[in-house]
Amino acid sequence: MLGQPTSLDHLHADFRWDIPHAYNMGVDVCDKWAATDPERVAIIDLECGSRITFAQLKKMSDTLAMELRAKGIGFGDPVGVLRSQSAWTAAAHIAIWKLGAISMPLFGLFRAEALKMRLSDSAAKVVVSEPDFAQNILGIRRQLPDLAHVIIPETMADRPALRNFVPEQTSAEDPALLIYTSGTTGDPKGALLAQRVLLGHLPGVEMSHNFLPQASDRFWTPADWAWIGGLLDVLMPALHHGISVVAKRMAKFDAQACKQLIEENAVRNVFFPPTVLKVLKSEQTQIKGLRSVASGGEPLGEELLAWGRTALGLEINEFYGQTECNMTVSACGDIYETPAGSTGRAVIGHRVSVLDADGNETMEEGEIAVHRDSPSMMLKYWKNPIATSDKYSSDWMLTGDRGVLRDGFVYFLGRDDDVISSAGYRIGPSMIENCLLGHPAVLMAAVVGKPDESRGEIVKAYVKIHPDFKANSNLEQELKDWVRSRLAAHEYPREVSFVEDLPMTITGKIIRKILKQRACAEAEN
Predict the structure, then answer these.
(1) Crossing angle for the helix pair 255-264 and 274-282, to the nearest 10 degrees
(2) Which residues form the AMP-dependent synthetase/ligase domain (predicted)?
């Protein structure tokens, strides 16, 4: 635990990784508290109106672990978890880790092809589901020869307490978690993460939430626990620290319901994906009582950060990472001010740099890279040695993101294939998108390069506007002038298209490659 340092120098001087050889995430986040403070509340499950203590969570996870063992699950076996936010979802991951098996979170809104791809690739023998989602498996079960069982743990709730279950002895390097990437730049790949991954996340989570745990801390996120942002940036770090987590699935995000949930349940700490912040801002939502707000996935920009200071009453701390190695860069308003345009500094204990085309560290623009020694670093891509090899350059993991490292701060420019080359300038889309979001007419914006005979590419913006505004040539020109007067003459969008919706991953990231394809098709016609 980082504690509450007085300065960044103090933080660096005091920090040492403590990764024990023998380590099990399930024991860490559940059994240690069940032994020392059994009545402490672990999960406030709003779906069923229950407050689940650590003692109850241990019973739930032990019961499920015994059931999984009876189904033939053992060390190194992948087990799908097709569930959203609930106490049984937490118990499912904990049970799997206690067995030395590998939990594989699956998003409840996945349909046949997405589920089939992940379950086939992993060869999972068992899926732990909830009643609402179990039907999604039935139509594809015959196409999954390895899948033998679908377990709905709610049916086990009345079983007697188990007294004889003993977790497997696992090491920090043993595989524990298989998370498939969202597939923004190609087919999803399974990132295989070790038991130590939680310990690797802790400094970044603690920094982005201004040094938790503190008195009265309580977590919630609208992000589904099937994704790394919900599972390892909120749920498991909170349980590690004995902090209660509110569980509530929102079928569709609603700003007023979000505000009500936070204020009525005394939530103090939240992870808001950027898309959620944009919705809250567009609906002029103000939320009281929060101590910390963290956000990651896309750069926020000064407009959203300034809104957060007013509407949320605090500084939103951005963080950066990837499924393969998460929580490696973070802002931390409690001990340093992050310059405009920067995501923050390398998290304590992680080495982050920018590499040139030859793989050498550079102070110029290059590819953001993370050193292999980060404890949150994946073990490998599942069944994909070529992709694993391609992900690294010597001792550095390549992120595929362009950036600049300046005075210790990381400036994110965009995905390598998102950067626009126009008339000799290299332009990152994020700054332009964030600038457009500052205009009162704009709800969402995405920027790509459109092929152009004279400039190579021009900046093309796709914009979703507020219903109070009309999409016309006057607004198009107004948006162009808005960017040109605030950024630079070479960065303003020379074309603006108004759209009903933007293509996004189910985690809320803009899929620019689809818009890039659309822009290329427009250029050909």
Answers:
(1) 100
(2) 31-382
Residue 422 Cα distances to 183, 185, 231, 413, angstroms: 27, 22, 40, 15
According to DSSP H, which parts of 355-427 are helical?
A: 385-390
Looking at residue 517, which CATH number applies to its domain? 3.30.300.30
Q: What is the pLDDT of residues 113-154, one digit of tens each?
A: 889 889 999 999 999 999 889 888 988 999 999 999 999 998
pLDDT at 431: 77
- Range scoring the smallest mean pLDDT among 183-192, 356-365, 458-467: 183-192
CB atoms within 10 A of CB 517: 13
Sheet holding 495-498, edge to edge: 442-452, 456-465, 495-498
H-only helix segments in 360-443: 385-390, 429-437
The pLDDT tens digits of the residues spanning 344-389 come to 999 999 999 999 999 999 999 999 999 999 999 999 999 999 999 9
Backbone angles phi, psi at 122, to 5 degrees: -80, -20
- Confirm whether 392 is domain-assigned: no
Check whether 502 has a pLDDT greater than 70: yes
Q: Strands 325-330 and 344-346: what pairing?
A: antiparallel
Give, for 92, the enclosing helix (H) or strand (E): helix 87-98
Q: Are 139 and 156 in contact (CB under 8 A)?
A: no
Q: How far is CA 328 from CA 203, 307, 364, in A?
A: 9, 25, 20
**Domain assignment of residue 514, yes or no:** yes
CB 344 within 8 A of CB 316: no
**% pLDDT > 70, the chain:** 95
Residue 134 lies in a domain: no
* Structural domain for 464, as ranges: 417-524
pTM of the model: 0.84
| Number of other CB atoms surrounding residue 404 within 10 Å | 19
Tokens for 505?
């991953």
What's the CA gap between 287 and 301, in Å, rounded? 20
pLDDT for position 157: 60
Residue 410 Cα distances to 110, 330, 353, 510, angstroms:
34, 9, 8, 21
Q: Is-contact 396 358, C-beta < 8 A?
A: no
